[in-house]
Amino acid sequence: MEELGHLFHGFEIALAGWNLLYCLIGVTVGQLVGVLPGLGPTTATALLIPLTFGMSPVSAIIMLSGIYYGAMYGGTITSVLINTPGEAASVITCLDGYPMAKQGRGGVALAIAGIGSFIGGTVSIIGLAFIGPALANFALRFGPPEFFSLMVLGLMMVVGLMGKSLTRGLIATFIGLTLSLIGMDTVSGAVRFTFGNDHLIDGFDLVIIAMGLFGITEIFIGMEDLSSLPKPAKIDGFMPKREEWGPALKAIHRGTWLGFLIGLIPGTSSAIPALLSYSLEKKLAKDPSRFGKGAIEGVAGPETANNSYCGAALIPLFTLGIPSSPTIAIILGAFIMHGLTPGPTLFMNNPDFIWGVIASMFIGNTLLVIMNVPMAGCWAKIAAVPPKLLYPLILIISILGAYTNANEIWDVGVMLAGGIIGYFMNKLDIPMAPVVLTFVLSRLMERALLQSLKMFDGDILLIFQRPICAILLALAAIMLIFSVIAAVQEKRKMFASDSEM
Amino acid sequence: MQNAGVWAGVMFLIYASGMFWQALSLKYYTPFGPGPGLFPRWLSGMLIVVSLLFIWQSIKEDVITFRDIFPTNKAFVNVASVWGAAIGFMLILNFVGFITASSLLLFTLFIRGYCWKTSLALAVGTSVFMFLIFNNAFGLPLPVNMWGW
Description:
The complex is a heterodimer of chains A (501) and B (149).
Chain A: H1 2-14, H2 17-35, H3 41-48, H4 57-82, H5 93-102, H6 106-139, H7 144-161, H8 166-179, E1 183-184, E2 191-192, H9 206-223, H10 242-263, H11 271-284, H12 297-320, H13 326-337, H14 346-349, H15 351-372, H16 376-382, H17 387-406, H18 409-427, H19 433-455, H20 467-488
Antiparallel strand pairs in A: 1-2
Helix pairs in contact in A: 1-15, 2-4, 2-15, 3-4, 3-9, 3-13, 3-17, 4-5, 4-6, 4-12, 4-13, 4-15, 4-16, 5-6, 5-12, 6-10, 6-12, 6-15, 7-8, 7-19, 7-20, 8-19, 9-17, 9-18, 10-11, 10-12, 11-12, 17-18
Chain B: H1 4-24, E1 29-30, E2 33-34, H2 38-60, H3 66-69, H4 73-96, H5 98-110, H6 116-137
Antiparallel strand pairs in B: 1-2
Helix pairs in contact in B: 1-2, 4-5, 5-6
């Protein structure tokens, strides 16, 4: 019960002065970007990083993680009321949420989604608080070979679960891995692939790359069609019918565990648990024909699962230092900027920070449920901002965000180039999330591989003599085989969309 | 040559080959252990293989033409106007200052959906507001012209 004491201390930190305000700002921005179809948590997190330079690390991460889980709540509102998902995890909510809204039951759909999101989010944070320290303790036994094996597994998950085809996933993965090699090699000090350009000595900045690939690409795609979104449906009453409570609560229960388990796997995305939860609910329903026509379980399950996923997805970051999604990769970048090293030593060396952030997530979830259920109608009106006004504003804010990163026009150019490349990648169905994830992993992988090779005197096969490495690499091999089989059987289309734009 | 997939594959191949060629000039192994060329050589080598596979699939299985993926007429002009305006913004920013460069960029985009008077007001108003927020409130210096804006 040592964790409980730490958690109470975390609440003292999270509730202290500015931290509470930053939590409120974070979840409000998250809610806003979730509502706005042109902006996602990855872009918003990347944009706000420069503003956190003057903050303490705990305040900065409280705000940035608030954006991450706040966006999951916001995306639901537009899915239900205007049939337009604000972010990828809420795509599935449209299927039953919008029919409910058309039947005049939009308020009920939002209420059950809010309740499910709160339960899922809270349970996963409890999991983070209690599993995190134990996992971190276990990970202290990891040496460079174990970390290398773990990253290979993460990489295989990314390749296996993202994108329409295996080849496209691999292309994106290797582009991310190789882009990260540009600049000075931190192990040998050699300058690589800079072509004499001084700007490239420090390599590309993760935040700039992510803003280009996610934010700017989304603006380019959005500019193709500047027609306004439909008006939101009216909300009358929030209470589900008496007979609906039972199936809805069961769906919430299943969604919580499904989201949590998937969140623990590096390389997955929040859209996957939502999708699986929907399929599960449909399979378990007595009358599956109700799905697609306004079944309450079709909203409750997926919405719970994607929020539960969010808390659990922070566990690999906090305990192993491995990001599981593009937004988490940006948060990892923020950790490093604030002088923190994510990984097993974080719980030991920075307890105030880690428990403060965990406690803030309980507070943030409570704030979000208050902001969502009674105020859903107000948020839906924000989604009605016309794209012809919205996209230029997002563009100039992105440009300012990129410029203020190092006060150089170079970063703006890199971001715009990233946007143009991302636009073409999107058109060719090449997923962008693996580029950002592997961009972060590449340097860590290289260092772990070189250290391992040194330990084994150049014989990499000795890695299989270490039990943890052997298990992790075997799992990676199984994942690869699974991906190849799925590619052959063309069963990958369900993972085609990029998540957390 | 209307196959967009093949062109994209060729681009990936050129990028990967360039990287592989550069990686050959870096040491693969040193007396102290693995060198800076080891990881890049493997990664770029694998990207060459995947690029070739992508080209093959684009020809044989999954043909995507430029017509399938590119927007037509107005939609394309909208997207191209953003690219052009953004490049223009980068070229003139350090000479004319943030407010002027940003106003021009935003005007080019707003004019796609609003009349010129509204576009001008929105562009200048937004630029001045952003300048005041970032430059004055956050203390993040933005490029200015000889008049200080």
